[in-house]
């Protein structure tokens, strides 16, 4: 009933759908400008070693401060950018800025950490993607081993040759590859070995119900066992309390991320945290 064909053959949309489309068109238009006009900025969420809580990495999370609408969450504008193809430009900006910042922290004498950057399928479908990453690393003068690109299982489902080729080239450069939201994408596991994946990120939905729920705990246990046998790194996403932290730390989970340790921070706040971490605790 929401969408009907009128007499003349045109689709008739209800007010709500039209409103939604207009909003999306407007937002997309604004997003195009936002990239040029510096309305986008990055936050960095610490990823810590377990059980020591020392920062080993940061996940780079993009933010958009819209001039009239205020903060727009990535869950709203990333899908729009993906559908329109604008994600390619946006992703390139994020990657450049993240690499520049990582180098900047190193220059400031802080302990080097990995920077983990989310990428979309559309970016990996570009034949030149790996080459562009290589150039961005060169420009920033950042060693490839500090960069970890987060892909999702969903990207692996169709086994596209361009995507596989790009991932292989990236591995050859020394870039690390992580699988984000692991356990939610229903793909085969054979790509883990084929692509020599470095890190699995256990999805927050499993961590949140762990260890009190039998089902989620079983899944977490299985992933931790898989990771140990395949000698991969693992990050538990969305750790929010002490119980989750204790369970994961005691069961061999190497790294964790979540509000229990820290929310996403500005570059300046992250620098402070790294500095505090490097100071000797007992005088
Ligand atoms: P993600 O890659 O799974 O990122 C983790 C999300 O969980 C982030 O949301 C983070 O703020 C949130 N989070 C972290 N710790 C906790 C916790 O303890 N509890 C809860 N409830 N949430 C936590 P955010 O920043 O809103 O990003 C949402 C998604 O947007 C990301 O999910 C990622 O898929 C996408 N995204 C963000 N930045 C980029 C980007 O630069 N490029 C692309 N392609 N996607 C991005
Ligand atoms: Mg991620
Ligand atoms: Mg994630
Ligand atoms: Mg997730």
What's this model, at a glance?
46% of the residues lie in helices and 21% in strands. It is built from 11 helices and 11 strands.
How many beta-strand segments? 11
Bound small molecules, deduplicated: ligand C2E, magnesium ion
Query: How is the largest sheet built, in terms of strand order?
Result: 3-4-6-7-8-9-10-11
Number of helices: 11
Mean pLDDT: 92
| % residues in beta strands | 15-25%
Largest sheet: 8 strands, mixed, barrel
Explain this structure to me?
This protein has about 280 residues and is an alpha/beta fold. The chain contains 11 helices and 11 strands. An 8-stranded mixed beta barrel has the order 3-4-6-7-8-9-10-11, surrounded by 6 helices. Strands 1-2 form a two-stranded antiparallel sheet. Helix 3 packs parallel to helix 5 and helix 5 runs parallel beside helix 6. Bound molecules: ligand C2E and magnesium ion (MG) (3 copies).
Q: Which keywords apply here?
A:
globular; 11 helices; 21% strand; alpha/beta; PAS domain S-box-containing protein/diguanylate cyclase (GGDEF)-like protein; binds magnesium ion; 283 residues; eight-stranded mixed β-barrel; two-stranded antiparallel ribbon; single chain; binds ligand C2E
């Amino acid at each position: 009933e929401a969408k009907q064909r009128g007499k003349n053959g045109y689709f008739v949309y209800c007010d709500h759908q039209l409103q939604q489309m207009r909003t999306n068109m407007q937002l997309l238009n604004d997003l195009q400008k936002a990239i040029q006009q510096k309305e986008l900025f990055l936050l960095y969420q610490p990823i810590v070693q377990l059980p020591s809580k020392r920062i080993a990495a940061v996940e780079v999370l993009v933010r958009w401060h819209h001039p009239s609408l205020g903060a727009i969450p990535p869950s709203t504008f990333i899908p729009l950018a993906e559908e329109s193809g604008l994600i390619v430009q946006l992703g390139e900006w994020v990657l450049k800025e993240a690499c520049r910042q990582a180098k900047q922290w190193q220059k400031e004498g802080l302990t080097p950490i990995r920077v983990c950057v989310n990428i979309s399928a559309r970016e990996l479908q570009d034949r030149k993607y790996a080459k562009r990453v290589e150039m961005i690393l060169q420009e920033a003068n950042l060693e490839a081993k500090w960069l970890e690109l987060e892909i999702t299982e969903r990207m692996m489902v169709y086994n596209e040759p361009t995507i596989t080729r790009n991932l292989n080239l990236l591995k050859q450069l020394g870039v690390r590859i992580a699988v984000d939201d692991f356990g939610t994408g229903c793909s085969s596991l054979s790509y883990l070995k084929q692509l020599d994946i470095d890190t699995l990120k256990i999805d927050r939905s499993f961590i949140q119900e762990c260890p009190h729920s039998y089902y989620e705990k079983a899944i977490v246990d299985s992933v931790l066992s898989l990771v140990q046998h395949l000698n991969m790194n693992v990050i538990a996403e969305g750790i929010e309390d002490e119980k989750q932290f204790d369970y994961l730390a005691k069961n061999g989970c190497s790294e964790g991320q979540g509000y229990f340790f820290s929310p996403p921070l500005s570059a300046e706040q992250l620098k402070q945290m790294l500095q505090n971490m490097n100071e000797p605790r007992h005088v």
